[in-house]
Amino acid sequence: MRVGTAILGIITSVCTVATAYAAYPGEIGHVIKTGMDPVFRWPSPPIDLPYDFSNALTDAIVSLTIAIIVGVIAAISAKKRGRIYPVMVAFSGLLFAIVEVFIDIAGGCYWAVGENHVVFTIMGRSMTWLPIASWLGFGAILIYTPYSLLRRNVQTKTLWIAYVLMWVVDIIFEEISLRVPGLYTYYGNQPFVLSVFPTWWVFVNAAGCFLAAALLYKFEEQLQGWKSIAVFFLAPLAYMASFGFVCLPATIVVNGNYSWFATQFGGLATAILAVLSVALTMSLVLGRSPLDKERQALSAA
After folding, report:
1. What is the pTM of this model?
2. DSSP letter string over 196-230?
3. Cβ proximity of 216 and 147 under 8 Å
4. Which of 66, 89, 235, 292 could be joined to 212 by an S-S link, Cβ 3.0–4.6 Å?
5. How many helices (H) and strands (E) does the chain have?
6. CA atoms of 36 and 53, how far apart (whole Å)
7. How do residues 36-68 score in pLDDT, each as one tens digit?
8. Separation of CA 245 from chain center
9. On the CB side of 123, how many CA atoms lie within 13 Å of its CA?
């Protein structure tokens, strides 16, 4: 199967599911202003955010459906190549809910929690099955797609186009999900709010997933057989490394009480760092010039 057909299938499936899901008559979400914690002097998380099990289940099913579609595409590739590695890459978002805790605390995101639906708790943040399922679907698209492009040895300009398209996919996911009550919300002094979604996150999420895809591609030959289990750890850790590199400006303003200009500047600085992160990934990990539009990728072997 040509990578163009695979990507078209992924985008078509996302848009189809998103269009149907957007018809849900949910409430319009927003960035919650919770006020500043009197002790720690940063925004208090909206711990009283109502949890809706029915909506969470629906959202999880949608995410898992997307993950399965990408998994089938990966399985076709795996059969042709005689190795299971592409399937592992497709499901590399399995453990992202763990690092989600850290980025949520720093970036002002809170998932609604049902008392009897907690899977794990880290640093006082409880997670249900929803963020696990969400990252399986989200990660399947944003990690497997650039990995597939790298396998095809595409031009650098194609990778940059893919990076921009990753923003679009992120916006589709979030603008829909944030309109469904009982799932999750953003809070604090968020920059770049488009409708209901703080769009500085698209630069961050795409950059982190791109680094994960690049590392999974680069170390494919070393992670065969039982070693391919490392994919589930390498991907979220790569995302977390990228987050640490790019997000300091945005997280400072999110967790403060700054002017509109300072807030937007923090978001802009993080967006620029995210693009720089992708360029550095191309140069240092993939061995290609990020500005050379015609240069073909070097072999990762």
Report:
1. 0.88
2. TEETHHHHHHHHHHHHHHHHHHHTTGGG-GGGGGG
3. yes
4. 235
5. 10, 6
6. 29
7. 888 888 899 999 999 999 999 999 999 999 999
8. 16
9. 11
β-pairing verdict for 184-186 and 193-194: unpaired
Q: Determine the Cα–Cα distance for residues 135 and 233; give it in Å rounded to an integer.
A: 14
Amino acid at site 68:
I
* 3-state secondary structure labels for all residues of 268-287: HHHHHHHHHHHHHHHHHHCC
DSSP class of 40: T
pLDDT in tens, 247-291: 999 999 999 999 999 999 999 999 999 999 999 999 999 999 998
As a whole number of angstroms, the distance between CA 169 and CA 297 comes to 25
pLDDT tens column, 91-127: 999 999 999 999 999 999 999 999 899 999 999 999 9
Closest CA to 61 of 199, 180, 171: 180
Which tokens is 184 given?
A: 């999750």
Give the helix ranges, DSSP H, for 82-199: 85-90, 96-107, 129-151, 156-177
Q: How far apart are CA 248 and CA 267, in angstroms?
A: 10
What is the spatial distance between Cα 100 and Cα 103, in angstroms, rounded to a whole number? 5
CA distance 144 to 103: 22
CA distance 270 to 280: 15
Quick check: 224 and 85 in contact, CB under 8 A?
yes
SS3 120: strand
Distance (Å, whole) CA 132 – CA 137: 9
Using N-to-C axis directions, what is the helix angle for 53-81 and 129-151, rounded to 10°?
30
The Cα–Cα gap between 230 and 246 comes to: 24
Amino acid in the structure at residue 245? F
Q: How far apart are CA 16 and CA 285, in angstroms?
A: 34
Token pair in block for residue 134 = 């969400």
